Amino acid sequence: MTRDNNLEIAKLQKEIGDHIGVGVDSLMFNYVDEPGQGAKLFLITLNPRHNQSFLFHSTTGRDKLEALQAMREYVTTYKDRTSSYTIQWSVRGERELNTSYFRAKNILDALDKLFYDRDPNSITVFSVILNPIA
User: What domains does the chain contain, in order, with CATH numbers?
Assistant: First the structure.
């Protein structure tokens, strides 16, 4: 019997959401085909409280399924390989101070996740804090 890639993709997406601790409705799996290099997967978290989206992580593979399998591998080990950061920010022109939490390898990586797919002038960052190891 032939494997149904769509069912496998749906299963892996659910596993990733379960492991992160959010529902699939709070995640966006954005696949980009890179000619000659395969597929790149950008996993985006959707935050309804801020009404904003942020990059969780990106992976690559020969195709969508392989990129998704690489993402599943990442989410099972990322807490051991990354640090926790708290970023306080606001949307330019608004008064509300927002707080977001990111897992990243360093401060620049955390800021890249905050600014992913948006104009860097649209957000004002007030603080970036490396959280203590629990």
Answer: 1-81 (3.30.160), 82-134 (3.10.20)
